[in-house]
């Protein structure tokens, strides 16, 4: 019950309404809440896109404000300050979005190598991604802290990322015992066989795979 109320508080604090309110009341807090909202929202498939879109909107608002305030004859210190803050905040969000995009691509490569290809050696992962060992290790530690690989850990002595045995076996069994439909070339009958294995047609006995 306590966790539920805590989640409600978090969702209320990082809601877009609260963020917009803080952007007008105290811009730095609003900007911080945007960073946290994008980082914590696991339903967002492409957080870097949101960061860059918001960043460009801020840059547009800030640039327009800077041009209008500096071209105006009246001295509007508050307006100039707000415009500059939007401009700086927008540039910061764009840079962060680019970094998030690069990070997301690296994480996708790691997942494909570890889960799909069963590669556990950090040296081999580093070689496959053209990164150095320390970069890969640092990234994987971040992924582990965010529960990308539940129950996995890095073995320092062997330099490997080790998945739970049940998950590794399940991944292997799924790939090794997956059944697919195949049409026999000899008699044209439909057969269900295990992928990657040579079998016999149930009707004419011809080899199929």
Automatic annotation (TrEMBL):
It comes from the Bacteria. Keywords: Membrane, Transmembrane, Transmembrane helix. The chain crosses the membrane at residues 14-35, 47-71, 77-98. This is Uncharacterized protein.
């Amino acid at each position: 019950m306590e966790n539920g109320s805590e989640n409600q508080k978090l969702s209320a604090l990082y809601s877009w309404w609260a963020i917009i309110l803080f952007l007008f009341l105290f811009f730095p807090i609003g900007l911080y809440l945007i960073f946290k909202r994008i980082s914590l929202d696991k339903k967002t498939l492409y957080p870097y896109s949101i960061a860059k879109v918001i960043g460009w909107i801020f840059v547009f608002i800030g640039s327009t404000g800077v041009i209008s305030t500096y071209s105006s004859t009246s001295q509007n210190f508050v307006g100039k300050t707000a415009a500059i803050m939007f401009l700086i905040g927008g540039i910061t969000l764009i840079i962060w979005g680019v970094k998030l995009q690069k990070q997301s691509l690296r994480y996708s490569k790691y997942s494909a190598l570890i889960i799909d290809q069963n590669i556990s050696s950090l040296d081999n992962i580093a070689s496959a991604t053209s990164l150095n060992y320390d970069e890969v290790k640092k990234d994987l530690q971040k992924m582990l802290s965010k529960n990308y690989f539940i129950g996995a850990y890095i073995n320092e002595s062997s330099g490997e990322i080790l998945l739970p045995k049940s998950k590794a076996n399940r991944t292997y069994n799924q790939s090794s015992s997956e059944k697919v439909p195949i049409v026999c070339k000899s008699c044209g009958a439909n057969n269900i066989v295990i992928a990657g294995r040579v079998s016999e047609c149930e009707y004419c006995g011809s080899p199929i795979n």
